Amino acid sequence: MDRKPIRLRQIAVATVMVTALQSWCLTVDNFSLLDQNGTSHELYGYADLKAVVLMVQGNGCPIVRNALGDIKAVRDLYATKNVMFLMINSNLQDDASAIREESQVWNIDFPILNDDGQRVGEALGITRTAEVLVIDTNEWDLVYRGPVNDRLTYERQKAKADRHYVAEALDAILNGIRPEFERVGAKGCLINFPARRQHLQDVSSVETRNVLPRGAR
């Protein structure tokens, strides 16, 4: 299947939004964002690695805070296997100073990319915090999106996970195959994307105006 990459600088937000929502399986185009300490991170700058893991972070989200130990454990497990672990914050209410403070208070020792314009979040179809995206750097394909593992749910949490989705996805990449699970529903706090909401409202309005009364055709 021929999948065209998403061009963050060339495609309108509405078009990117539709592409992301209709098909999760993306070829991720390059982007560059600053982290909470002002360090720049360019996605394609990690081309010499095997994979990039991107966890969606949001200040104050209890599920993100609860999952920190899980994602740190995965990072430590793959510390010598050429995998980069990052976080991304696309919340409009979380500025650079607040993100930095959250990282210090909660001992988040990952670079947290500040997506203050929401361009990257829109392109990747992000909707909730605590979702993890695993990108295979061979073709820059997004091969998995979902939770770190199956330990956390809204109602309860297990003492120990039975499935380790991110680890399984990374093992698949390292073995040159696709993960068994490519998408798993993630639990997390909803992220507000005003441009996306406005686009959906505009589309709904157009569709409503185009509905003709019975017998008018």
> Roughly how many Å apart are the termini?
39 Å
**CATH class value:** Alpha Beta
Structural class computed from helices and strand pairing = alpha/beta
Query: Judging by the overall fold, what is the CATH architecture?
Result: 3-Layer(aba) Sandwich
- Provide the number of structural domains: 1
Q: How much of the residues is beta strand, in percent?
A: 15-25%
Instruction: Supply the CATH superfamily name.
Output: Glutaredoxin
Low-confidence stretches: 1-23, 199-209
Radius of gyration: 18 Å
Number of extended strands:
7
Specify the number of helices. 6
Record the strand order, biggest sheet: 5-4-3-6-7
Could you please say which CATH topology applies here?
Glutaredoxin
Taking the sheet with the most strands, its summary is: 5 strands, mixed
Mean pLDDT, to the nearest integer, reads: 84
Tell me the series of helices and strands, N- to C-terminal.
HEEEHEHEHEEHH
Helix content: 25-40%
Draw up the topology in text:
Blueprint (H helix, E strand, L loop, with lengths): L12 H10 L9 E3 L5 E3 L8 E6 L5 H16 L5 E7 L6 H10 L6 E3 L4 H6 L7 E5 L4 E6 L18 H10 L19 H16 L8
Parallel strand pairs: 3-4, 4-5
Antiparallel strand pairs: 1-2, 3-6, 6-7
Task: Describe this protein with a few key phrases.
globular, 7 strands, 6 helices, disordered N terminus, Glutaredoxin, 217 residues, five-stranded mixed beta sheet, 15% strand, alpha/beta
